[in-house]
Amino acid sequence: MGNYSNRKHKQRRNALADKLEKRGIEDQNVLAAIREIPRHEFVDTALEDRAYEDTALPIGAGQTISQPYTVAVQTELLQVKKGEKILEIGTGSGYQAAILCEMGADVYSVERQEKLYHTAKEKLHRLGYRPQLKLGDGTLGWSAYAPYDGIVVTAGAPVVPEDLVEQLNIGGRLIVPVGNQNSQVMVRITRVSENEYDEERLQHFKFVPLIGEKGWD
Ligand code: SAM
After folding, report:
1. pLDDT at 1
2. What is the CATH topology of the domain spanning 56-205?
3. Which of 60, 96, 138, 212 has the lowest tally of Cβ within 10 angstroms?
4. Hey, which bits of 68-215 come out as E strands?
5. Which atom of ligand 1 approaches the CA of 212 most closely?
6. Whose CA is closest to atom 15 on ligand 1?
């Protein structure tokens, strides 16, 4: 890609980050990652010109790359610190995994759709990001690498998936949209101690469904 095109995308990314800050995103590390990650690389070339609009876009297989505002809210709620182990459920395009890598997290991500898993892996590697990726049912988490300091679910769940709660470290945060298939409330569960959890119910969103053993059929 030429210099002109790169500059154009960079300007659009900065404008998007400014807009998200005006909408209430305060975590400067989240905003810095949004200024850095080339979202246009995670969508089809036909949609490249729309990559820096604050909107969800189709990525094939009936799925979407989440709206940047949603990615920013979920990432801010995770309270990511450098070196923390973060699990994402729903790799999708790979964009949010790239944001988490850029913030210095040790990233694990699970996707159930084979085509998306392969495309995301290829894009992330081409851009120099190396999260651990798995093809499978994320409603069960990824027990081999548990516990996690943060878990973010990027699809809407009917209930909070128990396995994910159990895979949290003490002090760990689980961010999961929960509700019916038309609307979900963003839930943050913090594991305060071995047997104590704090639950917060925040804004409403609309996500694609979390499909799996502990999700929708
Ligand atoms: N984080 C993604 C991104 O940055 O593009 C957003 C992806 S999209 C909103 C949600 C993704 O969750 C879809 O790719 C979908 O296939 C995936 N998904 C749904 N149920 C899942 C499950 N049980 N395990 C893993 N991935 C799942």
Report:
1. 55
2. Rossmann fold (3.40.50)
3. 60
4. 85-89, 106-111, 132-135, 148-153, 168-179, 184-193, 196-205
5. 23
6. 90
